[in-house]
């Protein structure tokens, strides 16, 4: 029922068994009073003083009453007694959707128990049910119980401070699960941040080490220059390795008594060895040795002097 309300804000009684639909402008805000069919309520006496202490006990007080579901709880104190409530966000969302009410238009949600506890007589809310107050509890009774009932009038109703907020997705994931997910995500974020700090520190150390290496070995500032220098050094290393091998070959020859190695000369990438007093037999042995090892060489013998040239 979309009644004629005060100039500040409209109030709607939300009942899932009503066929009423509302067309509320996007910029208009309304308060919602929840029908007793949308929540569970008990009036209890508890050995605690404050509502915040009583709220911890609510789940156990409803334990044998509620069907399976994802419930949220509310409590307020009136005199020496507590009114405790259990409700499901999904049930409220479904009822709002059926009545064509968007959650963006809602200011507060109130229970009929807290707002209509002083109701007098029987009040009509839908074709099958009426509102009625019995022993301090606002309940729904069949319409057939009383033929004399009044229409619901919210025009002069002043709402109490007792209200609940709608958690739109609470019915999908339980609050405890959400808290666990938040805790896990927090740990992951901390680990990632710690890894990030370690990476930054390692990067700084690598940069410092790189600078030390570049300075120590007189490296060039660019990779291209260093690659070029590496190729040059590899070529030098290869030539020096060959040079040592070839010198070892020269020194390893078995010469006769008067035969000997007199000179080793390196010029223009050519190693030249000069042997003196070389016989024809030794000449042939040296030639066969270099040929067998597939080496590029030249031989020149004159007056017993043998010159062997090897390209590096």
Layout of helices and strands, plus pairs?
Blueprint: E1 10-14, E2 30-34, E3 40-44, H1 51-55, H2 58-61, E4 72-78, E5 81-87, H3 89-98, E6 106-111, H4 112-115, E7 123-124, E8 129-134, E9 137-142, E10 150-151, H5 175-216, H6 223-252, E11 260-267, E12 270-276, H7 280-292, E13 297-302, E14 305-311
Parallel strand pairs: 1-2, 2-6, 7-10
Antiparallel strand pairs: 3-5, 4-5, 7-8, 8-9, 11-12, 12-14, 13-14
Task: Please provide a written account of the structure.
- By secondary structure, this protein is an alpha+beta fold.
- The protein folds into three domains: 10-172, no CATH class; 180-219; 232-311, Alpha-Beta Plaits (2-Layer Sandwich).
- It is 35% helix and 25% strand.
- It is built from seven helices and 14 strands.
- The protein has helices spanning 51-55, 58-61, 89-98, 112-115, 175-216, 223-252, 280-292, and strands at residues 10-14, 30-34, 40-44, 72-78, 81-87, 106-111, 123-124, 129-134, 137-142, 150-151, 260-267, 270-276, 297-302, 305-311.
- The strands form four sheets. A four-stranded mixed β-sheet has the order 9-8-7-10, with no helix packed on it. The protein has a four-stranded antiparallel β-sheet with strand order 11-12-14-13, with helices on one face. A three-stranded parallel β-sheet has the order 1-2-6.
Cα separation of the termini: 105 Å
Output the strand order for the largest sheet: 9-8-7-10
SS content category = alpha+beta
Instruction: Count the E strands.
Output: 14
Radius of gyration: 50 Å
Structural domains: how many: 3
The main pleated sheet reads as: 4 strands, mixed
| Tally of helical runs | 7
């Amino acid at each position: 029922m979309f009644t004629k309300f005060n100039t500040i804000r409209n109030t709607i009684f939300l009942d899932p068994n009503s066929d009423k639909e509302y067309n509320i402008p996007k910029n208009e805000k309304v308060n919602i009073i929840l029908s007793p069919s949308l929540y569970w309520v008990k009036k209890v006496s508890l050995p605690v003083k404050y509502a915040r202490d009583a709220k911890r006990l609510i789940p156990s007080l409803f334990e044998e009453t509620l069907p399976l579901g994802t419930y949220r709880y509310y409590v307020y104190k009136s005199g020496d007694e507590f009114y405790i409530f259990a409700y499901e966000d999904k049930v409220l969302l479904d009822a709002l959707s059926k009545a064509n009410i968007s959650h963006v238009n809602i200011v507060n949600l109130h229970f009929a128990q807290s707002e209509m506890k002083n109701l007098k007589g029987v009040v009509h809310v839908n074709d099958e049910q009426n509102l009625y107050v019995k022993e301090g509890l606002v309940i729904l009774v069949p319409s057939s119980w009383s033929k004399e009932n009044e229409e619901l009038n919210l025009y002069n109703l002043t709402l109490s401070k007792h209200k609940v907020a709608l958690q739109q997705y609470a019915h999908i994931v339980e609050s405890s699960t959400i808290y666990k997910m938040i805790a896990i995500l927090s740990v992951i974020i901390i680990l990632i941040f710690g890894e990030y700090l370690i990476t930054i520190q390692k990067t700084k150390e690598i940069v410092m080490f790189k600078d030390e290496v570049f300075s120590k070995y007189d490296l060039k500032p660019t990779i291209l220059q260093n690659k070029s220098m590496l190729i040059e050094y590899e070529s030098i290393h290869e030539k020096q390795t060959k040079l040592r091998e070839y010198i070892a070959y020269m020194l390893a020859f078995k010469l006769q008594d008067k035969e000997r190695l007199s000179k080793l000369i390196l010029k223009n990438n050519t190693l030249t060895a000069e042997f003196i007093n070389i016989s024809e037999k030794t000449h042939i042995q040296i030639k066969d040795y270099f040929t067998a090892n597939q080496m590029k060489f030249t031989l020149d013998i004159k007056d017993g002097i043998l010159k062997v040239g090897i390209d590096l």
